[in-house]
Amino acid sequence: xxxxxxIIGLAAxxxxxxxxxxxxYRELRKASLVQPPTATQQIVVAAQxxxxxxxxxxxxxxxxxxxxxxxxxxxxxxxxDCAGRAVIMPTAENEPILEGNLAPKGSGAGLPATxxxxxxxxxxxxxDVVGVAGFVVPGTMVxxxxxxxxxxxGAGGNITRTILENIPVLAAGQKIEKDxxxxxxxxxxxxxxVSPENADKLAMASTQxxxxxxxxxxxxxxxxxxxxxxxxxxxxxxxxxIVKTKGGRRVYHRPPPPYQVEVITGxxxxxxxxxxx
Length: 277
What we know:
Layout: H1 2-33, E1 40-46, E2 61-67, E3 120-125, E4 141-149, E5 158-172, E6 189-194, H2 196-208, E7 210-216, E8 229-230, H3 231-234, E9 240-245, E10 248-253, E11 259-265, E12 268-274
């Protein structure tokens, strides 16, 4: 009897010991898997959406915690380090403020701050047609076409050519940001970002000819350089038909092509051809 009790007691002790050891093992395993707290640092972000040319200060900036082992190139850790400078591209709320997205120190705010060094902003007068029905808004890309008279008053009449391609629009009227709803807006002038050489071309075209803006997809950056179009070629009549004779050659104009008329009589259909006089 005592022997049986002893055996039962030993078995119970083994089971309890196994159960306790299992719990201890699991807790130790969990403890080994717990990662040490990640070191953080403060970085400067936008406290609200910022439009192009907005000046940074403590009212539109704030700091958030960021993993110290994952730095962002050009980030700021203190608001004072970037205060007073302007953003040169739209910035979303909570987006980090980066050096590459800011105008140089001392360049001020507004439109002048968005003009890169060596470039120029030139405004041209537009209307609903020239401005592509108001869809030429800040951030879009355009080609500039000009129509004018052929130099020397030649027989070619007027000529239309593309003088500038893939030109960014800085402002429409006095607006340097897009309409919030993406709707077109009617403005009297459009400001384009051009090089000094292209600024001369654009100024000449807008004063001595008639310009037209062609809106293009912002991801389409291919330079096409299309050939110019002459008025006398665009509106030329049918090509003459040349007939050679023994005494020389005579030129006859090709007659206009005949036209066809479908005649329906009851259930009968037929096509009749008539000379175009």
